[in-house]
TrEMBL record:
Renumbered residue ranges of the record's region Disordered: 338-357
Protein name: Site-specific integrase
Keywords linked to the UniProt accession: DNA recombination, DNA-binding
Any Gene Ontology biological process: DNA integration
CDD domains, sorted: DNA_BRE_C
InterPro entries: DNA_brk_join_enz (IPR011010), Integrase-like_cat_sf (IPR013762), Integrase_catalytic (IPR002104), Integrase_recombinase_N (IPR010998), Tyrosine_recombinase_XerCD (IPR050090)
Recorded family membership: Belongs to the 'phage' integrase family.
GO MF annotation terms: DNA binding
Domain Tyr recombinase: 148-328
Compositional bias ranges of the Polar residues kind: 343-357
Pfam families registered for this protein in UniProt: Phage_integrase
Nucleotide-binding recorded as keyword: no
Length: 357
């Protein structure tokens, strides 16, 4: 007695439909053969995620990582649904600390959602959760509102610099901070990440590291370079460590900025009322560069790499020498990257010359 075994192959259209369904579910045929790995709990994954973050990102996400641990520490990632996240996001919105710059908690919710996505992206990369099972992919950030920041007028900028230079317990440090941000339009992370060996004293360039891992060489005036060098020497900043320091040699943190603007606000009520901060200096400098020179130079000056302005931006890039030329007009000082014959600016630039306070 013999037995026959017949194998049947599904029709081609059935196979195509199955593959399409797997694709829509974020799966591959190999996923069906791979044993399922239990998703970790938030208490297990949050410390691992926190360890991978840069200091600035860790500070931004820190509050929300703590919240995930406190609220859902014993829950696995695949046990939380979109309605759960929506409910927690609403809690973030309603309990956010209110200050003069508050805008209904939208920024806090945006950071919360970014934190959740970061956690689940880490889980996906480790193979602990499948894309199809990732509720973070369905979360929507709130619409970002138009910024209320504007370019600070020259006379008000002079008042800010005057208060910084005549009040407080470290006038030299505060004046240096303001000059650094006004000249370079850098972010706080760029200033805090600056190290003595990031100073090219010959060409008057500093190496800035800012958000999202971006970095660039930025021109500075000979005056600012001299002050940065003197600051590093006088406060004994190690070559490979943070440059900006207190008199006792300890590196400053973002709290120094908070202290500075609170003090300025006590003397200039409009600063406190409008919530003026270091980022307003970035707006001020970049607005002037764009109005006086061009959008392309302002984009390079800011260190932006986004192509949101359109394809044309790919062909009208500015270079380091053009940024140095703009800085030369801003500070009314010659720059080593600009030859004497190149230092003469168009009438529009010279007529809009804006010397630093």
């Amino acid at each position: 007695m013999t037995s026959t075994h017949q194998s049947t192959t599904p029709p081609a259209d059935t196979l195509a439909a199955a593959r399409l369904l797997l694709t829509q579910m974020g799966l591959s045929p190999a996923d069906l053969l791979t044993p399922t790995v239990a998703a970790p709990t938030f208490a297990e994954i949050v410390p691992a995620v926190r360890a991978t973050l840069r200091p600035g990102t860790r500070r931004t996400y820190g509050t929300h990582l703590d919240r995930l641990e406190q609220c859902w520490g014993d829950r696995r990632l695949d046990q939380v649904t979109k309605p759960d996240f929506d409910q927690l996001a609403e809690s973030v919105r309603t309990t956010v600390r209110v200050n003069r710059a508050s805008r209904g908690g939208a920024s806090a919710v945006e950071h919360f959602i970014s934190t959740v996505r970061c956690v689940y992206r880490h889980a996906e990369e480790k193979g602990w959760i499948r894309p199809a099972d990732n509720p973070a992919r369905t979360l929507t950030r709130p619409t970002r509102r138009k910024s209320h920041r504007y370019a600070i007028p020259t006379h008000q900028l002079a008042d800010i610099c005057r208060i910084a230079a005549t009040t407080g317990n470290d006038q030299e440090l505060d004046s240096l901070l303001l000059r650094l941000h006004i000249e370079t339009a850098c972010r706080r992370s760029g200033a805090l990440g600056l190290r003595p060996h990031d100073l090219d004293t010959t060409q008057c360039l500093i190496y800035l590291r800012e958000k999202d891992g971006t970095d660039r060489w930025q021109p500075v005036s000979p005056t600012l370079m001299a002050h940065l060098t003197a600051h590093a020497q006088n406060r004994h900043s190690p070559q490979s460590e943070q440059l900006l320091r207190y008199r006792n040699g300890k590196p400053i943190t973002h709290r120094r900025y908070d202290h500075l603007w609170n003090r300025i606000g006590e003397h200039l009520p409009w600063v406190l009322t409008q919530g003026v901060s270091t980022h307003w200096l970035r707006h001020t400098t970049l607005t002037w560069v764009e109005r006086t020179f061009s959008y392309a130079i302002a984009k390079e000056y800011a260190g932006h790499s986004s192509k949101k302005a359109g394809t044309t931006a790919t062909y009208v890039k500015a270079n380091l020498h053009e940024v140095a030329a703009a800085l030369s007009v801003l500070t009314n000082e010659p720059h080593p990257l600009i030859h004497a014959e190149e230092s003469s600016q168009p009438n529009r630039a010279t007529s809009n010359r804006r010397s630093l306070p």
